[in-house]
Design goal:
By secondary structure, this protein is of the alpha+beta class. The chain is built from nine helices and 17 strands. The strands form four sheets. It has an eight-stranded mixed beta sheet, sandwiched between helices. It starts with a helix and ends with a strand. The relative contact order is 0.12.
């Protein structure tokens, strides 16, 4: 149901969702636990943000001194430039500012900067943010926002789902550190998987129990059970954090049973007493569950993409993936006579798979 909701949101271009404060806090803390200086002395850019409504700016502003930030920059996108428009009314925060301009408020983006104690209370926080209108609408692809990207050290945001590929490419082109939210399906995108394979991108710490709850922008219909009528939050099961910032959970190896013990004791009936199937078109075994990966198997294994959430680069190497967008980055995984880009087991296609091998 969550996947259907996300797809519908993308198709309607109503793909903006506000992230909850505690989810941001939980994720950032994972990097600080691994390295307390992750953000120290850094300029952080939030380029798909609206500080008047978003929790990203609130979190980083309120933790400016604890994180040791050098500078915080947020930009917002003009209401009139959005494909999915909602009734627009300038906030009281904007209207009360001396620079407020009714002619600019809906057609210009805004830039918010925090880099010092403006009000003189001895604390750098949300109250010290300065803002002004951008020359353009605040599109991240504009020359104006791209210049801010080049100034920043780390880029953090929840970009519109429909622009995820383009947004990631925009970051990678500048070789920046980043922490962004996207669909787990992006793992096998041709723009994403090569970065994963080259260890230039990995999954973040993750949402609690894999459940992401967002506050949608605007009103629309959702499949029953997806939107909570009381809280107004929308639940997605297939969202995750993508990053190139290191964190401790990434280096925790999986505790696994041997192949023989899996065949004897596995809780999965497909494996217990039966063993592992072999692909018709690739020299690898099919492992349908992450907890069923055999610890002592030396060859290639096809595993669910959810493996990436538990991937330890010191334990396994990633060989390739089955593509949803055509063959091209598995490089030798498939027999030359194979006409499909999905692994086959007894003539039937397995779902999306990552191919891995145990490191010695």
């Amino acid at each position: 149901m969550a996947n259907a909701s996300l797809t519908a949101a993308k198709n309607a271009k109503n793909d903006e969702f506000y992230t909850q404060y505690h989810d941001i806090e939980r994720e950032i803390n994972a990097y600080l636990d691994f390295n307390p200086d992750t953000f120290r002395g850094k300029t952080v850019l939030l380029p798909c943000d609206d500080p008047e409504w978003s929790n990203f700016t609130l979190f980083f502003a309120q933790h400016f001194e604890v994180l040791g930030l050098k500078k915080l920059i947020s930009t917002s996108y003009a209401a009139e430039s959005k494909l999915y428009k909602t009734p627009y009314q300038p906030s009281l925060f904007e209207q009360s500012a001396p620079q407020f301009d009714p002619a600019k408020t809906s057609v210009r983006g805004k830039i918010f900067v925090l880099d010092g104690d403006v009000d003189g209370d001895g604390i750098i926080d949300f109250h010290d943010i300065k803002w002004q209108y951008l020359e353009g609408d605040g599109d991240f692809r504009s020359r104006e926002v791209t210049a801010l990207r080049d100034e920043a050290d780390i880029i953090v945001t929840n970009p519109p789902f429909s622009l995820f590929r383009e947004f990631l490419a925009w970051i990678v082109a500048a070789d920046k550190k980043f922490l962004i939210i996207g669909s787990a399906n992006a793992i096998t995108y041709k723009e994403v998987f090569p970065l994963i394979k080259e260890n230039r991108l990995w999954l973040g710490n993750g949402f609690h129990k894999g459940n992401a709850y967002f506050r949608p922008v605007g009103d629309r219909e959702y499949v029953a059970g997806v939107k909570d009528a009381e809280t107004g939050l929308v639940k997605f099961r297939n969202c995750c954090w993508f990053t190139n910032l290191d964190h401790g959970r990434r280096h925790q190896p999986l505790i696994l049973m041997t192949e023989a013990d899996n065949v004897r004791y596995s809780r999965h009936k497909e494996i217990r007493g039966a063993g592992y199937a072999h692909y018709d078109n690739y020299d690898a075994i099919e492992v349908p569950y992450v907890d069923a990966i055999p610890s002592d198997y030396e060859g290639a294994m096809g595993v669910p993409i959810t493996f990436l959430d538990k991937y330890c680069p010191e334990q396994f190497e990633i060989l390739g993936a089955s593509e949803s967008e055509g063959k091209g980055f598995s490089n030798g995984l498939w027999h030359s006579e194979s006409s499909v880009s999905q692994p086959l087991v007894n003539g039937s296609r397995a779902y999306k798979r990552l191919f891995i091998r145990k490191l010695q």
